[in-house]
Write a structure and sequence with these properties.
This is HSF-type DNA-binding domain-containing protein. GO terms for molecular function: DNA-binding transcription factor activity; sequence-specific DNA binding. By secondary structure, the chain is mainly alpha-helical. The protein has helices at 12-17, 19-24, 30-39, 79-88, and strands at residues 6-7, 43-44, 55-56. The protein is globular.
Amino acid sequence: MPHGRAWKVHNKRLLVGEPILGKILGLPSYFSFTRELSEWGFKMLHQAGPDYGCYYHECFLRGHPQLTALMKKTAEPDFYAYAIARKLS
């Protein structure tokens, strides 16, 4: 977006049809792409207006690539480790 704080997929068909998702990112579908975004902490903006449908992350800012080093992928919970810890206590 012009302000550099959010970005938008303007053509989902083009993104899915290009080798970007499959060959470069290793993702089979647009749904997988959006799930990855969520795991990396990107939020979809739902307010009406020019930023509707855009994705935002506080460490993904145009002109400041060094901030991306602060981005962390959220780990999936290990439910089995939790159950074992509960039994031990």
